[in-house]
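The protein record filed here:
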Amino acid sequence: MQTSASETPALPGPTLASPPGSPEQIAEAFDLCERLAKTHYENFSVGTRLIPRELRKHFYSVYAFCRGVDDLGDEADGNRLALLDEWEKQLDLCYKGSPTHPYFIALRQTIGQFSIPREPFEKLIEANRRDQTVLRHPDYEELLDYCDHSANPVGHLVLYIFGHREPELHSLADSTCTALQLANFWQDVERDYRIGRIYIPEEDMKRFGVSEETIRERAATPEFKKLMRFEIDRTRELFIEGYELVRHVRGQARIDLALFTAGGLTVLREIEKLDYDVLSKRPEVSKFAKIRLLISAYVRSRLRLEPLPARLFRPANR
């Protein structure tokens, strides 16, 4: 969907004070990406402390892209599809031209240094376009396709920065990223419904006898809990499948990738501790728990143990 010049909306975001194209402008752009990440996503202030210093700014630039496109798709005022078109134009300039938005000025450097292809970025934009019109998912396969656009590209971007381009490793990352996206959906069933979206596949709701009215009334019926247990169990299997990736990488990448899995599995366990009632209370992982997971993974890796203990892969209530 393209807009005419007179209808072109202005992308939200900070402005730069440094001269265009100067080293100072690039440094300022990276600083703005870092500020965004540390302000809006506390995991960055925890998880990036162990990342090699020379890589940190590139994780921040990728985060700024991901956060920006999600904000346009979920929260922006005005014509969101037109704004996403403008976001994609800035991406185009990263590959052929000179972007003007601060986050893309930084991202252009990251793309160039690590030879990152366009596809992961394009998929993330497409996922947010879908969010404007697709509010229900008929079956699990369609939901997985959505995750392939909304979540899996992030894993690819992380691997590119860590220097891994092997297709088999990217495939394993897909399992973890899809699982993370699903865990987020199950965590936010009630919140998503309030903005008009249901990510639970309609075929699953029908199978377990759960209607939209159940979610609207926040009624955690026995049928709803059985449905959630089913979704949690198969999401855990994806985490187990994707965890094999950790055994194929070394150094800080090993810890970071393990932490993605640890965070997602902990969300699943928190849902289980609530007896699958995600409608009355949103399950959350505290900042203290996240720090504890990081320290545990780091120490276990230093001792040449598996970064995550086996208990984390088991249900909390069985």
About this structure: The chain is about 65% helix and 0% strand. The two ends are 49 Å apart (CA to CA).
